[in-house]
């Protein structure tokens, strides 16, 4: 496994262009649910896709223009709600998304070599807009970088306010479908209405939500984990869990749970236990883990819904119990995993 490599300079031989929907689209203000409008999703998600073969840039632009007709809010801009200055809405005005082209003297094979640490220079592949303010920035920015081997890199920046990871995948799959099938239409249309997740008035909170409770800050560095962590030297690394590694972790589960746990749960459980073990905490110290859970099936959301539909869930254990039991919150229920030591 190699160390991280620095990417060569990226040559942008054309200025970025704006891609707009290829047909007229509705012009209105789109309500955003509270899941869309959380403070910690007011950011951009970044994804890098490496292909060993290229697609013509004009083909990508054309299909992007087509998919923006169906996903017309993506071509809009965020605005502050006229009813509440702390809430955002999408102004569906068809302004478009940003698309850039570039080239780089490197091959797909070189980029795909396993490495111990993250590529620190992937920001060179990012499409750079000319806006300084969050609300004025396009909700989607794309850069296609051609490689010396004939492949390409697709660097995509998406505003998290508009969609979650599942919604992003739906959009990209639909874009890919129209790229490959230029004379076809989408079989499942995107579902835009976020009011189906509108909060109840008054709120009906029937059980505690510890993830959203802010605990009083403990200024003692011996008890405040985050304060202690800032004093440590942390090293970024990349660990690959292949099929064989996951199978070995599964075999640590009791027989009754072996076929029910998911790969994600197995990796989370192993990571949680390993990190806790490395910190040499007191056996009575309480440790938590927090991750996101998709609620689409739980709420039976319509097909094509691409908005944010995840919540934070958590599990808690003492260090001593974590050596034997892994607690995971899944689908609204609490499961106990018993691991063989």
UniProtKB/TrEMBL annotation:
Stored InterPro entries: CAT-like_dom_sf, Plant_Fungal_Acyltransferase
SUPFAM superfamilies in UniProt: CoA-dependent acyltransferases
Molecular function as annotated in GO: acyltransferase activity, transferring groups other than amino-acyl groups
One Pfam match: Transferase
The family this protein is said to belong to: Belongs to the plant acyltransferase family.
PANTHER family referenced in this protein's UniProt entry, alphabetically: OS01G0104900 PROTEIN (PTHR31642:SF5), TRICHOTHECENE 3-O-ACETYLTRANSFERASE (PTHR31642)
Protein name: 13-hydroxylupanine O-tigloyltransferase-like isoform X2
Species annotation: Cicer arietinum
């Amino acid at each position: 496994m190699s160390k991280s490599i620095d990417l060569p300079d990226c040559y942008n031989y054309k200025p970025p262009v704006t891609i707009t929907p290829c047909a007229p689209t509705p012009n209105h203000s789109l309500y955003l649910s509270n899941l869309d409008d959380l403070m910690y999703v007011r950011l951009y998600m970044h994804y890098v896709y490496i292909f060993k073969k290229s697609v013509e840039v004009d083909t990508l632009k054309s299909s992007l223009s087509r998919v923006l007709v169906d996903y017309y809010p993506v071509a809009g801009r965020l605005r502050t709600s006229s009813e509440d200055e702390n809430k955002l809405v999408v102004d569906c005005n068809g302004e478009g998304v940003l698309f850039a082209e570039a080239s780089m003297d490197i091959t797909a094979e070189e980029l795909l070599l396993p490495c111990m640490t993250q590529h620190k220079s992937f920001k060179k592949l990012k499409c750079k807009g000319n806006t300084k303010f969050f609300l004025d920035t396009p909700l989607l920015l794309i850069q296609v970088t051609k490689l010396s081997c004939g492949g390409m890199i697709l660097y995509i920046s998406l505003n998290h306010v508009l969609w979650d990871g599942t919604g992003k995948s739906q959009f990209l799959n639909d874009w890919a479908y129209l790229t490959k099938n230029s004379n076809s239409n989408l079989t499942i249309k995107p579902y835009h209405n976020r009011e189906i997740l509108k909060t109840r008035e008054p709120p009906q909170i029937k059980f505690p939500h510890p993830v959203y409770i802010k605990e009083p800050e403990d200024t003692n560095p011996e008890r405040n984990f985050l304060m202690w962590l800032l004093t440590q030297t942390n090293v970024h690394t990349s660990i690959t869990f292949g099929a064989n590694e996951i199978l070995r972790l599964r075999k640590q589960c009791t027989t009754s749970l072996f076929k029910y746990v998911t790969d994600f749960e197995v990796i989370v459980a192993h990571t949680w236990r390993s990190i806790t073990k490395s910190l040499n905490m007191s056996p009575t110290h309480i440790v938590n883990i927090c991750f996101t859970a998709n609620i689409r099936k739980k709420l039976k959301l319509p097909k094509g819904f691409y908005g944010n539909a995840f919540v934070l869930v958590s599990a808690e254990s003492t260090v001593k119990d974590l050596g034997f039991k892994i607690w995971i919150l899944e689908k609204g229920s609490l499961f106990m995993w018993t691991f063989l030591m």
